[in-house]
Amino acid sequence: MKIGQLAQQTGTPVDTIRYYEREGLLPRAARTEGNYRIYDAMHLERLAFIRRCRSLDMTQDEIRVLLRFRDTPSESCEDVNALLDAHIGHVAERIRELQQLETQLQVLRACCKEGRQAVACGILNELSQGATEVSTPSASESHLSATHAGGRQHVTPRKQATRDS
Amino acid sequence: MKIGQLAQQTGTPVDTIRYYEREGLLPRAARTEGNYRIYDAMHLERLAFIRRCRSLDMTQDEIRVLLRFRDTPSESCEDVNALLDAHIGHVAERIRELQQLETQLQVLRACCKEGRQAVACGILNELSQGATEVSTPSASESHLSATHAGGRQHVTPRKQATRDS
DNA sequence: TAAAAACCCTGTAGCAACTCCAGAGTCAAG
DNA sequence: CTTGACTCTGGAGTTGCTACAGGGTTTTTA
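ok -> C-alpha cells follow
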C-alpha cells in the first residue's frame, strides 16, 4: 500500500506520515523501484496507534515511550500507568488554568457596555491600569505559566490550515 | 531608562522586549550614543498593557487590534467587546475540549491495574484497537481540532526554560 | 586608572508538531 | 503519448518566544 492509501485509512495527512518517519515514530518504509514508500498492515497499526495517542494530546516523547512498551511486551506496564497519570495531571492542571483565565476575562468583559468611545472603554482602561507593576515578580507562577515555561501553547488553534485554497 | 530596567519593572525578559519591537508591538526605541535603547513612561505603559493581554492568553494579533483602539480613542469600542467575547469563546471551547479529553483519558486509565506485563496492559491494548479505522474521516472536528487547524497548542508547557543554568 | 563585571547590541537557530510549497520524478488511463 | 493523479526530496513557515555566539559599552571595583 502506498502512502496516499495509508493516509486515507488513518485520516493522517501524507506530509505528517513522512514527518513521523523522519522523527522515528514510524520505521522507514520499504521502497518500490520508483522510490515510492510501501506500507503493510504493521505500519498501519502503528500509525493508528500513534494517531490515537495524538488525539489524546500526548506529545511525541510520550508516544515514543508507549511505543517502546508495545515493542517489548514482557516488561511490566507500571510506567504506562504512570505516564498516563502524569498526562491526566497535565490536562487537569491546564483546565484549572483556563478556568481561572475565563473568570478573569469575564470580569474584564463586564467593565464595558457596548457603544462607548474607546477612550471611555472600561476594558481598555482596565488593561492599562497599574502600569508600573505587572506580573508581580514574586507572586507569579500562579495563573498562567505560559510566560515562565516553554511558552508555546495557546488557548485555541485559531488559524485554519487553508486546506481549501 | 535602559532595556534591563524596563524588563525588571514589567517582569518581561529582555529578549522578549526586543522581540516585541521587531514584531512592531512596541515602537522602536530611541538610542543612546552607544546604541543602547532608551525607554520612557509611554513605552513602559504600553509594554505593561501588552503583558497584561498576554497573561490573558491573547495572541499578538488580538493585542495589535487592542493597541490600535487605544491609539485611536475616538472610535467606538464595540470591536473591543467583540474581540473579548470571541476570546472568551475560544477559552471556553478549549476548556470543553480538555474536559472531554480528561474523561477519555480516565476511561483509558481504568483499563489497566498496576503491575501487569505490557503485553496484557489494558491501556496499550485499548490504544491498539480498531487499527483500520481511526479519527473517522467524517465525524472528526469533534473533540480535538489540533489536528485539523494550525496544530500547535498543547495541554501544558512541560518544558522548563532552564533559566537557572 | 585599569581591569573586571555587568550590561547591551545584532543575528541566527531552536522549540512542537506539523503544514505548505517548489520542482522534479513515476505511474495508470485514455 | 499526453494528461492527470500521485509521489519524491528539501526547505521554509507557523507561534511566541528563548538561547546562544561574538561582539561592543558602561559601571563598578581594586
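The radius of gyration of chain A is 23 Å.
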